[in-house]
Amino acid sequence: MAVVIAALLPVFVLIVLGIVLKHSLMQLDTQWHGLERLTYFVLFPMLLIQTLVRADLSKVPVAGVGGALLLSALAMSLLCLALRPALSRLGIDGPAFTSIFQGATRWQTFVALSVAANMFGDVGLALASVAMVAIIPLVNVLSVVVLARYAAPEKQSAGTIVMTVVRNPLIWACAIGLAVNLMHLPLPKIWHDVADALSRSSLAIGLLVTGAGLHLQGLLRPSLGAAFGVVFKLVLMPALAMGLGVWFGLSGNSLAIVAICSAVPTSSSAYVLARQMGGDAPLLAQIITLQTIFAAVTMPVAIALAA
């Protein structure tokens, strides 16, 4: 447990630093918006490409890790949809349901990759990147479909949903990195020098942006919907993922990576999608903030159980 906490501590310190900077040195939203776009479209994709280019995928259980996380995300999605009638009877409307759905199924990639790298180095980064290939396309498609069905003021066409997924730079980065790796394409030294420089800055800046995006208002009186979002993501999702990981024969570091990726808070990009498609954005902001706070307790437990 001490090793797990030591790996998580720098991650949460950077998130807290982001909160402090947002309320002191960098108070303008435009400053953080620029950093968010830089990280999302340049720094983070470069980290994923470089990690996958260098990964020795023959030595890691790609199918087991990816399969466990893919099926757990699918199972959680189906559970949320099955609970929709019951949640409706509790007064949770369509837009609020979409926020619970996103809060339960999506994951904060900055946190996952940082913890994986702190605990397991390049191998951890490679496995977490493979997990992204499995999860990101699925949860993006499902989130857009659920928002279109339960929250969007206008019905979204299939083409719009497909384009939302296709334009995701993280999916492209994973695809490019895997393609270069599997085809053994040689890259010049200058590529590695530039990519390494950009990659080193990506996780720190990403965690600062995550902290700056948290909404601390209303945390003393969380809503019922927020409570469901926290329990589904921080308790049920890790339990599903680790159970599937054991079923796939994973153990040790590989199972710990599954625990890391499933136990992280929800992605802050979910908030942007909720605003764009008519979801309950304030509720989702509350869910993300509460998850980030409680994950400081639940993540060490999940990872320690797996490891």
Architecture overview:
The protein has 13 helices and no strands. The protein has 307 residues and is an all-alpha fold. The chain has one domain. The N and C termini lie close together (9 Å). The mean pLDDT is 85.
Q: Per DSSP, what share of the residues sits in E-state strands of 2 or more residues?
A: under 5%
SSE sequence, one letter per element: HHHHHHHHHHHHH
Class by alpha and beta content: mainly alpha
Taking pLDDT < 50 over at least 5 consecutive residues as the criterion, the unreliable ranges are none
Question: Alpha-carbon distance between the termini?
Answer: 9 Å
Tally of individual domains: 1
**Mean pLDDT, nearest integer?**
85
Give the overall silhouette. globular
Let me know the number of strands: 0
Backbone CA Rg = 18 Å
Produce the secondary structure layout.
Layout: H1 2-22, H2 29-54, H3 62-82, H4 84-89, H5 94-105, H6 109-150, H7 158-166, H8 169-183, H9 189-212, H10 224-247, H11 252-263, H12 269-277, H13 281-306
Helix pairs in contact: 1-6, 1-9, 1-13, 2-6, 2-8, 2-9, 3-5, 3-6, 3-10, 3-11, 5-6, 5-10, 5-13, 6-7, 6-8, 6-9, 6-11, 6-12, 10-11, 10-13, 11-13, 12-13
Provide a brief overview of the structure.
The protein has 307 residues and is an all-alpha fold. Helix content is 80%, strand content 0%.
